[in-house]
Amino acid sequence: MKFDVAILGAGAAGMFVALAAQARGLQVALIDPHAHRLNNFAISGGLFPAAGSSLQRAAGNADSPQAWLDDLRQFAPGMVNENIASAVAHALPLATDFLLQQCAAPLHFLPDMVAPGHSQLRFHCVVPASGAALHGWFREACAQYPRIRCLTEPAQVQRLDPGFELRVGSDRIQARQIVLAGGGFGANAEMVARFIPGMAGALHNGSPTQDGSTMALGIAWGAQLWGMDGYQGQGHTNPGGATRLGMSIPTLGGFLANRQGVRFVAEDIGPSALAPAVLAQAGGVALEVFDAAIEAQLGNHGAYQQAVKAGQVITAPDLASLAAQTQIDLPTLERTLEAVGTFATGQAHDPLRRQVFARVLAPPFKASWVTGALSHTQGGLLTCADGKVLDQQGQAIPNVFAVGGCAAGLSGRGADGYLPGNGLAQAFGLGWRLAQALT
Ligand SMILES: Cc1cc2nc3c(=O)[nH]c(=O)nc-3n(C[C@H](O)[C@H](O)[C@H](O)COP(=O)(O)OP(=O)(O)OC[C@H]3O[C@@H](n4cnc5c(N)ncnc54)[C@H](O)[C@@H]3O)c2cc1C
Q1: Which residues pair with 226 in a beta bridge?
Q2: Smaller CB count within 10 Å for the chain: N or C?
Q3: Domains of the chain: total
Q4: Which atom of ligand 1 is nearest to the CA of 421?
């Protein structure tokens, strides 16, 4: 069987590229031996920024790719992957319009999705927001198009000159180009220990399919790596890792206290940088405290609703009840809440330097224990703005492309540089550019 392109990995990046490539008339082999398992796309919140999309404009929101780029550079100074950042910013509205107009994707602009580090409301997803639901739509869409052939057995890849031969089960496939889209290495303990030693052994709440196997192909073919210590941490993860609260609670006015009832971090630094800060507390946990008025704003937040369903959110009619339910010292918790109130009303400045406390919390209180997790890795194969994989000299390796977690991400060293939404922004934005560059 002959194809224009073989894509290894049917996650966010691989499926997006498959849809955009088939729309250009290309014959696509989309290969994923773990298609029956949850990948990171299905686990994710499904939230992606598309500054300047038609949906955002229709909602009266004057945003632009440049404004998102400015936010990214301010959030991650000196840590931005300038090889791709501008291209991704400008591609995201096009990628979103492509999904809407050519594929009839059920996408919405989310006017209630505030996010740390973003100066504008610019997140998009299905409604209610859910990575699983968006992933499900992509899977069905890929299965519908006759130019996409989905294969679900492991591929053995041989590089020819030119092109590639792949053995997929009993099928023998020839493809002129290959796209490496098998995700990052968050589930590969040896790679995590080597590249992100501070998170070795930490809870991983991403998919076990993140084994670095497609990255290994690029490395074997001489690819240059970028940003390998970068990762998205998740400091709002419920212990055990099955659920999380989502990123918005601090921006809406919530705070974090450790087991002693004491605040320890400016909570709105973003969910990623929060992860190591939470892990550094006694027992590696903290209590995220908010109230019913904040919860009322989370109706569309799929991750939060799952945490509620899983019984992870405590309700307390007053602070004494919250202290009793969490076994945190009541007088300390009272002092912490009182201090937060003075920051919210502008009577005092937060010594931890958090600038914005959206409201004074009021009973009934809500709270949930959280820990820090490694969600997904950001380092990977360095590409140009069209997704072509670059070698040690910065030259494109012929016909080899990479996107998603397998490729170098948008920004980051450690957990600090991950701006919320960077994962899918790169998968769709770089994916759009890559699909236009395929021949
Ligand atoms: C808890 C969590 C929450 C997140 N929330 C968000 C969010 O709200 N917004 C956001 O922007 N990002 C979010 N992300 C990140 C986002 O999920 C990833 O950036 C995105 O899924 C990357 O796409 P991908 O295609 O590279 O990886 P995936 O979506 O994981 O897909 C990779 C695919 O490759 C397959 N594969 C693996 N090895 C091979 C191989 N050798 N051959 C063929 N196929 C292979 C896997 O089975 C998988 O299906 C979140 C991640 C996690 C873990």
Answers
A1: 380
A2: C
A3: 2
A4: 11
Residues 225 and 254 in one domain: no
Q: Round to whole Å and give the CA distance between 347 and 367.
A: 25
Strand pairing of 28-31 and 148-151? parallel
Atom of ligand 1 nearest to the CA of 135: 29
Please state the atom number of ligand 1 nearest to the C-alpha of residue 423.
19
Structure tokens at 210: 């993140």
CB of 217 closer than 6 angstroms to any ligand 1 atom: no
Q: Is 90 exceeded by the pLDDT of residue 204? A: yes
- Statement: the pTM of the whole predicted model exceeds 0.85: yes
Domain hosting residue 388, numbered range: 2-230+378-437
Mean pLDDT of the chain: 97
- Please provide residue 256's backbone torsions phi and psi, each rounded to the nearest 5 degrees: -120, 140
Please tell me the distance between residue 207's alpha carbon and the centre of ligand 1 in angstroms.
Answer: 8
Report which residue type is found at 53.
Answer: S
C-alpha of residue 294 to centroid of ligand 1, in Å:
29
Exposure of 321 by Cβ count < 10 A (0-12 exposed, 13-18 middle, 19+ buried)?
middle
- pLDDT number for residue 278: 97
**Burial grade of 82 (CB within 10 A; 0-12, 13-18, 19 or more):** exposed
Residues 397 and 364 in one domain: no
Give the integer Cα–Cα distance in Å for 314 and 428. Answer: 37
Both tokens of 327, joined, read: 């076994």
Q: At what angle do helices 12-23 and 85-101 cross, to 10 degrees?
A: 70
Q: At which of 352, 373, 394 does a domain end?
A: 373
Segment 63-91, tens digit of pLDDT: 999 999 999 999 999 999 999 999 999 99
Distance 154 CA to ligand 1 centre (A): 17
